[in-house]
Prior knowledge:
Number of domains: 1
Helix content: 25-40%
Distance between the termini: 39 Å
Number of strands: 7
Radius of gyration: 19 Å
CATH topology: Beta-lactamase
Amino acid sequence: xxxxxQGKLEYDDVVQKFIPDFPYKNITVRQLLAHRSGxxxxxxxxxxxxxxxxxxxxxxxxxxxxxxxxxxxxxSPDKRxxxxxxxxxxxxxxxxxxxGLPFDEFMEQNIFAPLEMTNTFISNPKNKKTIEYxxxxxxxxxxxxxxxxxxxxxxxxxxxxxxEDLFTWDQALYTEKLxxxxxxxxxFTPNSYDYKRRNNYGFGWRxxxxxxxxxxxxxxxxxxxxxxxxxxxxxxxxxxxxxGNKVNWSFGDPEQLIGIVDSVETY
Length: 267
């Protein structure tokens, strides 16, 4: 969205404008953002083609696999919504192609450093912070998780942060430190017009509406023994940020969490 505001891309640009050898036609930036591209999830096909499991797969190498083997799409572009990590990996590659920076450096220079999010970074085996702040994730049965060759792909995952830094980011989104509010509003606008339920998906945010009409935007995450949830009620700036390094499904309902917050008497 920052690049869009700078005039460097349009949401309806096709991927080939930035990645000429991308093999799937008529997929737009908008469809990638809203999970309407139909791209197959790389987590389920990359292992078939990446034989060096002890070496991290990168976004560039993932694009190479896609270009060479062209895994079958799940449906034609914009037919429906389906969450796909591949779309956000491709978006990160588009950021790299436009900016000329590795994705982790782009994020550091344009978001983390300006907001003074000093404990936040994108995982990169070559990044000193990745080693310095290394932690361990655990399964639901408290077993340590091991690294995966998929850890090297970013855009869809691999963001390390703290509750304090994420709250800083939350507060910045109510200002225009990063982008204009009019630009950001589209991220919170439903993009699946065929999705009839009251919950929907915007650009990187799930969207829900409470019974009283208040809009909630949120997203969860799960990878390698870590899971998290970030909930924002835009009307009164309520924020709920949960980070964990042990798989835990007990906090998956954002409305339930909002209800707990609202039930707590303040003094």
